[in-house]
Amino acid sequence: MADKLRTLQNLEALQARYVGTGHADTTKYEWLQNITRDSYASYIGHPPLLSYMAVGMGEPKEKVRTMMIEKMIRGSGAPPETQE
Amino acid sequence: MATTSHMFMYSLTIQPPTAITQAILGQFAGTREQQIVTASGSKLTIHRPDPTQGRITPIFSQDVFGIIRSLAAFRLAGSNKDYIIIGTDSGRITIVEYIPSANRFNRIHLETFGKSGIRRVVPGQYLVVDPKGRACLIASVEKNKLVYVLNRNSQAELTISSPLEAHKPQILVFAMAALDVGYENPIFAAIEVDYSESDQDPTGHAFEEVEKLLVYYELDLGLNHVVRKWSDPVDRTASMLFQVPGGADGPSGVLVCAEDNITYRHSNQDAFRVPIPRRSGSTENPERKRQIVSGVMHKMRGAFFFLLQTEDGDLFKLTLDMVEDDNGQLTGEVKGLKIKYFDTVPVASSLLILKSGFLYVASEAGNHNFYQFEKLGDDDEETEFSSDSFSADPSVPVEPVYFRPRGAENLNLVETLNSLNPLIDSKVANLTDEDAPQIYSVCGMGARSSFRTLKHGLEVSEIVESELPSVPSAVWTTKLNRADEFDAYIILSFANGTLVLSIGETVEEVTDTGFLSTAPTLAVQQLGEDTLIQIHPRGIRHILADRRVNEWPAPQHRSIVAAATNERQVAVALSSGEIVYFEMDVDGSLAEYDERRQMSGTVTCLSLGEVPEGRVRSSFLAVGCDDSTVRILSLDPDSTLENKSVQALTAAPSALSIMSMADSSSGGSTPYLHIGLYSGVYLRTVLDEVTGELSDTRTRFLGAKPVKLFRVSVKGQTAVLALSSRPWLGYSDIQTKGFMLTPLDYVGLEWGWNFSSEQCEEGMVGIQGQNLRIFSIEKLDNNMLQESIPLSYTPRRFVQHPEQPLFYVIESDNNILSPSTRATLLEDAKARNGDVAMLPPEEFGYPRGTGHWASCIQVVDPLISKSVIYSLELEDNEAAVSIAAVPFSSQDDEVFLVVGTGKDMIVSPPSSSGGFIHIYRFQENGTELEFIHKTKVEEPPLSLLGFQGRLATGIGANLRIYDLGMKQLLRKCQTVATPNLIVDLQTQGSRIVVGDVRESITYVVYKYQENVLIPFVDDSVPRWTTKTTMVDYETTAGGDKFGNLWLLRCPRKASDEADEDGSGAHLIHERGYLQGTPNRLELMAHFYTQDIPTSVQKAQLVAGGRDILVWTGFQGTVGIFVPFISREDVDFFQNLEMQLAAQTPPLAGRDHLIYRGYYAPVKGAIDGDLCEMYFLLPNDIKMMIAAELDRSVREIERKISDMRTRVAY
């Protein structure tokens, strides 16, 4: 039992520290949100990738970067209606 | 599966990326001089701007083997040296300093804070430093912020604290800046958005009401923790922050730049807002809002200003007005903002203002520019917009204001630094029929795009070219006195005489020099203090300062065939094979050594080294004989003309030169014997200073003519000029001190000599046919020459004409008005008597319009006219996406130009209203194009390929084969080859390799009898393919969007089965494996390059070199993959790699192996860039590694440099 508790605590610590760490009850919405935000963060963070996209869009890098962080707010869309 | 690959490649960068991620300014050397540090890809480079000449030269560059994301410079209070903080993907913060004496970066601190890699919550994206150097903040896009306190200890060393956390979950950061607060507690400002509510609200209201906040984080130095001190909503579109000077210099606070407006904000000040002026003009959309994309703040004595740049490239000068008190003194209270148009420069990723009055623009695309300030726009006629007329409330929209862009008034361009970024496509081809091919590439963005030719070579600037009365055989220059700084005479030898020219204001013939003018000359030397000697076939003429002449006649029936001289010794070889040796006496006369040495064959060449400092003679004489040997003879008094060593050669030597050069192995300078052969081969061997032994021979083929060698001086170092069919220069690389041999971009010379005069201190004089040429070499740091031809729009792809040296480039730009739309708008404006002036698009860009495309096909002639010779604009909002030159069997194998286009394309999310395939016929030898017809297809065809006399296209996920009809293309057969979108097609035989945008590559076989396309092998890993090439029938090399290069091979069995005769029924009916084709490709090699490969090609880069893979990267990298031949070499380099990674871990703390295996473990590849780091190591570490590998330092260096020079530059 103690082991199980420790595992749980470890998992919780991980989840607090690293956003996006999943758990048994991760919903599709949460998972998608994380994937979307992780992807945008990665596009912004890798300089060649950002400038590749900027050239593709014909916009300056800074504009594309801002646009992508803006998209991170919404992530993959509005959450599903909760059924209580 | 075997753990090691059967195939090993050596990856090497021959041109590092030229895109600049960020540039910073500081006094990194600890002197008052400012340097620029730039991050390009994984390279950290320090540059020295030279204000007197208006130039920027790189001083030192190091590969950190990690992705550099952010840089910051800081200085501790009271110190005068700036340190550099680097934010990379290593999950660590790195502080380095530049050590000018050693010309190296030295790491001071390396603190781990998180996981490696570029992740959403691992800091590294933003890096800001308190202006007083007391603390820095490193933040991620989401949640995490870490503050490090910087201080110094009692030994005045820099210390760094453990990190203080200022995390807040579910917060996105748009921008960060450090506030200038003087010596109060450091404050960092951030633009943040909290998305927690939006994530909980299914209705979407919360998302619409999301607020953007300006947040202040204060580091309490007393309590040693960080608090969120203040926050206030700002404009929803805010995206950038700039620090406003504080303390004694200004009011402190920040500028918040949003779409269409800039606001001054501070916690204890009123807000002030100015709009960002929009361009006025008939082709401009008056509704279009601008955004600030980069900027810089500059502090001068008692004043400061901002230069802020919009996406059009327009720079605006922004100043703050302060409230005056009753006595007319300025208070710390802000009265308002003022903004006005300054000038237009290319869109920058970093702007830097130097104290010496220069502006450095690290361009986002294309060449980087260096400008000098002519004035600061203080008293010009530009309209100034003040914040007085605008409300500071972010919810109130600002009234737009307009300005008229104009030519530069305040800035003067002094230098452009070549940059290939973004490099979109390239081809290796030899169009000029030189011995080595050139690299042709298309790069740039928008109106600053260019077609560039890259060639291996050094740039030569010619000073004089003059024709002589007849063809000279040789030329020398000489001083009159040993102490003279410059040369006084040019001596020309002709078949039957000698001509002496004096160098002064003008160059003219002199006759009273004492030189024998009726015989050809073999050698000229300034001897002793003030005498000259001339060696001619009949004897030696010793000319004293008072023009008296002592003559030593050659013995009867013999003549002098070769001679070698230095300032104290003379050696001549007679036609009988005897060597006569002279030395200068104490009284300045030449004394003959009493014995003559008889050589076995005819002597072809001789060389004496320079007299070493503090000695009376050079102790070796090198003698080359026609029996294909070189002998080293001793010149020591007790063993004069005795044999020391012999070197056998593959051909008779044509030239010899003993020369001391800088040496990377010993760190000092080492004497080398350079040997040129009649066969055009050049050798360089180390000459042992004591024993005269020859060792470490390196060979290089220079050209078809016998090699001649000359000692010259370039940029303060001794170099060897080697002449064969092309002139070459051998010199030490400025950074690594390794030996480089580079062709000169110049005519073939027959003879060369050093030349030094008041006008040209380090020049060379040469003979080419009947011409005398004087030239110099200005730069040794760049051995790739670039020639640039401007293009109209962003290039997308290009092809070569099948026979002519012409290229066809397709170009397209999104959100740009097409020429016809522009013309219509201008017509309208003319009708309304409006403004019809158009600004040059190269500087100001094209007028923009959302949803519009401008696209054209241009014919480029890179050889003769070096320009675009024909252009064809596409109409109806079509944009070209692919191009191929395809021979059609139905038209008697006539080659047509096929261009794929997309109509009304939207980049993200991708959509279009269909595509077209245009057919053009080449006219006038390809210099013009005739439109034949176009065929509508469902989607833009992203790839086209000539396949067995027909056209293969990728349309969406369909691979389709067309034949040419009279009115349109005729569909012949098709298959769904890949899951998503075909982006690349390659072929050999009846096999087509199909590259998918997300799903790697699939091999498809075409069965002619049945007219079917059958995919038979695909990949198990999703690779986001950019470009591929077939290395052989089974193997394909390719690159992906994440910066990997890979080689995939089809299993032999699957490959054979696919080509079996018959219907292919067995292939069609074979069961697919895991929802794919029946077979899987095997991975042969995988390597992370960090730059996105945009072209991969199998080619040779040097004459006589092997086939290698040449790839170019998006940021301007040119790299190669060299296949290893022997297993021993692989083992050696693997061990070396391991030793290097262990002994000299990468500067920014990224583990080398993990870096190269960023997305997938490195397989079958050796990192040549890491191996070449060996040259940069201090000697003791070099020896340590050499001992570990059981080899000598010289041997290791030789192996490393051989890997490069055998196949590339």
Automatic annotation (TrEMBL), chain A:
<comment type="similarity">
    <text>Belongs to the SF3B5 family.</text>
</comment>
<dbReference type="GO" id="GO:0005686">
    <property type="term" value="C:U2 snRNP"/>
</dbReference>
<dbReference type="InterPro" id="IPR017089">
    <property type="entry name" value="Splicing_factor_3B_subunit_5"/>
</dbReference>
<dbReference type="GO" id="GO:0000398">
    <property type="term" value="P:mRNA splicing, via spliceosome"/>
</dbReference>
<dbReference type="InterPro" id="IPR009846">
    <property type="entry name" value="SF3b5/RDS3-10"/>
</dbReference>
<dbReference type="GO" id="GO:0071011">
    <property type="term" value="C:precatalytic spliceosome"/>
</dbReference>
<dbReference type="Pfam" id="PF07189">
    <property type="entry name" value="SF3b10"/>
</dbReference>
<protein>
    <recommendedName>
        <fullName>Splicing factor subunit</fullName>
    </recommendedName>
</protein>
From TrEMBL, chain B:
<comment type="function">
    <text>Involved in pre-mRNA splicing and cell cycle control.</text>
</comment>
<comment type="similarity">
    <text>Belongs to the RSE1 family.</text>
</comment>
<dbReference type="GO" id="GO:0003676">
    <property type="term" value="F:nucleic acid binding"/>
</dbReference>
<dbReference type="Pfam" id="PF23726">
    <property type="entry name" value="Beta-prop_RSE1_2nd"/>
</dbReference>
<dbReference type="GO" id="GO:0008380">
    <property type="term" value="P:RNA splicing"/>
</dbReference>
<dbReference type="InterPro" id="IPR004871">
    <property type="entry name" value="RSE1/DDB1/CPSF1_C"/>
</dbReference>
<keyword id="KW-0507">mRNA processing</keyword>
<dbReference type="GO" id="GO:0006397">
    <property type="term" value="P:mRNA processing"/>
</dbReference>
<dbReference type="InterPro" id="IPR058543">
    <property type="entry name" value="Beta-prop_RSE1/DDB1/CPSF1_2nd"/>
</dbReference>
<dbReference type="InterPro" id="IPR050358">
    <property type="entry name" value="RSE1/DDB1/CFT1"/>
</dbReference>
<keyword id="KW-0539">Nucleus</keyword>
<feature type="domain" description="RSE1/DDB1/CPSF1 second beta-propeller">
    <location>
        <begin position="461"/>
        <end position="777"/>
    </location>
</feature>
<dbReference type="InterPro" id="IPR011044">
    <property type="entry name" value="Quino_amine_DH_bsu"/>
</dbReference>
<dbReference type="Pfam" id="PF10433">
    <property type="entry name" value="Beta-prop_RSE1_1st"/>
</dbReference>
<dbReference type="InterPro" id="IPR036322">
    <property type="entry name" value="WD40_repeat_dom_sf"/>
</dbReference>
<dbReference type="InterPro" id="IPR015943">
    <property type="entry name" value="WD40/YVTN_repeat-like_dom_sf"/>
</dbReference>
<dbReference type="InterPro" id="IPR018846">
    <property type="entry name" value="Beta-prop_RSE1/DDB1/CPSF1_1st"/>
</dbReference>
<dbReference type="GO" id="GO:0005681">
    <property type="term" value="C:spliceosomal complex"/>
</dbReference>
<keyword id="KW-0508">mRNA splicing</keyword>
<dbReference type="Pfam" id="PF03178">
    <property type="entry name" value="CPSF_A"/>
</dbReference>
<comment type="subunit">
    <text>Associated with the spliceosome.</text>
</comment>
<keyword id="KW-0747">Spliceosome</keyword>
